[in-house]
Design a protein that fits this description.
Elements: E1 5-6, E2 13-16, H1 22-27, E3 35-38, H2 48-60, E4 63-66, H3 80-92, E5 98-101, E6 104-106, E7 110-115, H4 121-138, E8 143-145, H5 164-175, E9 178-182, H6 183-193, H7 197-203, E10 209-215, E11 218-221, E12 224-226, H8 235-248, E13 253-256, H9 264-281, H10 284-287, E14 291-292
Parallel strand pairs: 2-3, 2-13, 3-4, 4-5, 5-8, 8-9, 9-10, 10-13
Antiparallel strand pairs: 1-14, 6-7, 11-12
Helix pairs in contact: 4-5, 7-8, 8-9
Length: 293
């Protein structure tokens, strides 16, 4: 039997493959979700009971992958040994959607956080070259995710500064890669940094959008939101997701929940809401099915 793959269009809503949810995901009824997403960094080389559970779920459900540690914006050399292992993982599980963060996470060691890249032309050229190399080693196009950030780099003052949207578009063009549009990050950044979330969405290159993420966040203050992935999705984020569908079309959408995990039924209710928004945005003829056989 051929493994199924995540569709790039039509109704398709997924969940993160978290170890705390393994038993519930294995017991979930058919059709409860359309795909699962995992971080290869957390699963490469894992065997035993956990490895068997991953193999079982990957055989039953399409699998997408979202990397954590490539440090695309970093200055340390890319870890090509790890990239080769990642390619074998993606090939083994027939992963059609692979993404990483438009950030960096290492500097003479792992920082265990996603750090923002300066919005400059020099940074565009630097990170785009690294993305192109990653695509060459992996043998596939990748998508990069717009990230949340809480302190912006100061302007370089040389006339080459960009805003966040311009920076994202420039990287995508220079690297010739795709975009994983994280709608919650747009919402959070727009409030924290005082820009128009709707204008940001409208400025994104729809033809490059491969998938979406949606998640919950923490309201630290009226003007400070923290991207936690530890709460239900808020109303404003749902509304922004619906707008993204109207502007750029429906693509696979992942519900991210990493902490404070509720019963699976609560997560599946949010998955169902994603599907409802997708169906409202696409013609009935395009809404049937969620995977390629």
């Amino acid at each position: 039997m051929r493994r199924r793959q995540v569709r790039r269009d039509g109704v398709s809503a997924g969940l993160g493959l978290r170890r705390a949810l393994l038993d519930e995901l294995r017991a979930a009824p058919a059709g409860a979700f359309d795909f699962l997403e995992c971080a290869p960094d957390n699963w490469i080389g894992v065997g035993g009971r956990l490895g068997e559970a991953l193999d079982e779920l990957a055989a039953r459900h399409p699998l997408s992958c979202h990397g954590l540690s490539l440090s695309l914006g970093g200055t340390e050399p890319l870890d090509e040994t790890f990239l080769a292992r990642t390619r074998r993982f993606l090939d083994r599980h027939r992963v059609s959607l692979y993404s990483e963060h438009l950030s960096y996470c290492s500097d003479d060691g792992h920082l265990y956080d996603l750090m923002p890249i300066p919005f400059t032309g020099e940074a565009v050229r630097h990170v785009a070259a690294r993305i192109r190399r990653v695509q060459d080693v992996l043998g596939r196009r990748i998508a990069v995710e717009n990230v949340s950030y809480y302190a912006a780099h100061p302007p370089a003052g040389d006339g080459h500064d960009l805003d966040e949207a311009q920076f994202v578009r420039a990287v995508l063009e220079e690297a010739d890669c795709d975009l994983l549009l994280d709608v919650n990050n747009v919402y959070v950044n727009a409030i924290n940094h005082g820009y128009d979330a709707h204008a940001f969405l409208a400025s994104m290159p729809g033809a490059r959008i491969a998938s979406y993420h949606v998640a919950g966040h923490y309201d630290e203050a009226e003007d400070l939101k923290v991207d936690t992935h530890g709460a239900p999705v808020k109303t404003g984020v749902w509304e922004l997701l619906a707008e993204a569908y109207r502007l750029h079309g429906v693509h696979p959408t992942l519900l991210e929940r990493d902490f404070n995990l509720p019963p699976l039924a609560e997560l599946l209710a949010e998955v169902a809401r994603i599907r409802d928004l997708q169906r409202a945005a696409v013609p009935a003829s395009a809404a049937a099915g969620s995977v390629h056989a």
